[in-house]
């Protein structure tokens, strides 16, 4: 009976660990999805401004406030490449960079979803074992009629 109790506790601990891992993976997926959404907005914006000689826009200046601004050069974009570094790229180079970023982010999401599915499968395999042990443990703890 004590073996069953220990095994049940062990399985429940494993299930909780896997559930926590699943939550972390889901948070990572959400973060990567947010990055993908930003890249897609950038892609759309570049397509919308490409070829326009001048463009009026609103520039955020903080605290939900904006100022009107005029963009005189729609042929180049200054893009972040990480670590606080940004470089100037022409529109075609920017589009290539964006396409590569999208591909990498989509692949990352795919890998994370695969990991999440594997974790869910393990939880699905452990849960029936835990339920069975819980029933057996409860049955063994009930006083026996003589």
How would you describe this structure to a colleague?
With 146 residues, the protein is of the alpha+beta class. The protein has a domain at 2-49 and 91-141: Helix Hairpins. It contains two helices and four strands. The chain has helices at residues 2-49, 91-141; strands at 55-62, 65-71, 76-82, 85-90. Strands 1-2 form a two-stranded antiparallel ribbon. It has a two-stranded antiparallel sheet with strand order 3-4. α1 (2-49) runs antiparallel to α2. The longest helix is centred in the last third of the chain and has 51 residues, at 91-141. The two termini are 19 Å apart.
Give the structure's gist in a few sentences.
With 146 residues, the chain is an alpha+beta fold. Helix 1 packs antiparallel against helix 2. It starts with a helix and ends in a 5-residue tail after the last helix.
- First-residue to last-residue Cα separation: 19 Å
What gyration radius follows from the Cα positions, in whole Å? 27 Å
* Secondary structural class: alpha+beta
β-strand percent reads 15-25%
Model regions low in confidence, pLDDT < 50 over at least 5 residues: none
How many strands, what sense, and barrel or not for the largest sheet?
Answer: 2 strands, antiparallel
Count helical runs.
Answer: 2
Question: CATH fold name of the domain at 2-49 and 91-141, please?
Answer: Helix Hairpins
Question: Strands of the largest sheet, in order across it?
Answer: 1-2
| Mean pLDDT across all amino acids | 91
């Amino acid at each position: 009976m004590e073996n069953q109790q220990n095994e049940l506790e062990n399985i429940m601990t494993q299930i909780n660990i896997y559930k926590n891992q699943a939550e972390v993976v889901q948070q990572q997926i959400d973060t990567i999805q947010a990055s993908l959404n930003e890249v897609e907005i950038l892609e759309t914006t570049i397509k919308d401004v490409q070829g326009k000689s001048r463009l009026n826009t609103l520039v955020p200046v903080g605290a939900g406030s904006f100022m009107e601004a005029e963009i005189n050069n729609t042929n180049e974009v200054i893009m972040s490449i990480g670590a606080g570094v940004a470089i100037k790229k022409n529109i075609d180079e920017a589009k290539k960079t964006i396409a590569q970023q999208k591909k990498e982010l989509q692949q990352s999401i795919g890998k994370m979803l695969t990991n999440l599915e594997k974790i869910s499968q393990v939880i699905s395999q452990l849960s029936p074992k835990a339920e069975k042990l819980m029933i057996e443990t409860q049955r063994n703890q009930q006083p026996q009629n003589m």
